[in-house]
Amino acid sequence: AQSVTQLGSHVSVSEGALVLLRCNYSSSVPPYLFWYVQYPNQGLQLLLKYTTGATLVKGINGFEAEFKKSETSFHLTKPSAHMSDAAEYFCAHRRGGSNYKLTFGKGTLLTVNP
Amino acid sequence: KAGVTQTPRYLIKTRGQQVTLSCSPISGHRSVSWYQQTPGQGLQFLFEYFSETQRNKGNFPGRFSGRQFSNSRSEMNVSTLELGDSALYLCASSLAGGGGTDTQYFGPGTRLTVL
Predict the structure, then answer these.
(1) Residue B11: CA atoms inside 13 Å, Cβ hemisphere, count?
(2) What is the pLDDT of residues B86-100, one digit of tens each?
(3) Chain B nearest-CA residue for A98
(4) Relative to the CA of B64, which of A15, A21, A53, A105 has its CA 20 to 30 Å away?
(5) Test the A interface: residue of B106, B111, B112, B113 with most A CBs within 10 Å
(6) pLDDT in tens, A23-59
């Protein structure tokens, strides 16, 4: 069964510091991978996705992620954190084809300190 | 384009009652998926509908059901509500135009509280 593991349920950084949120997946087939962000009392907003092609994926709000097949990882980074980045971040995996089921990690709450 | 809309946004029910939640996908999107989000279990897939047919299903009891109409709008129903059904229910839509690489866009969710 496919699964997604997010290391660290809570990450705290200072404003201007590097943001690194970790995600590892397990899958027997090439995956589609996603990062979503959720602000309080809101739904999920797509930050970026990897389907095929370039392994370094750029998303919105300055975030990017790199798909590393050898490490089964898809970590999310941002060079300089902003106060507005404080939210919960979810990594998700999809098998592809006609199966639209997303399997989510448990989420990482990002706190940005002034 | 308008995003995914869900109604109602908040709902309070008592145990044993039933509830119906509604989701209107982005115009032109044909696939609608439903997820349950709770603090303990996180985000869990309920089911996905495409062209009025349930195409994929998660591991939830039969009390959870859904349907999709010809205009792609979807409803989910929970019968005989239990306290553990209290959750944020999220709907997501996608084009489902083939190839499978398209993105799922989420609505704001319906917050269900069961007393």
Answers:
(1) 26
(2) 999 999 999 875 555
(3) B100
(4) A105
(5) B106
(6) 999 876 667 899 999 998 889 999 999 988 888 999 9
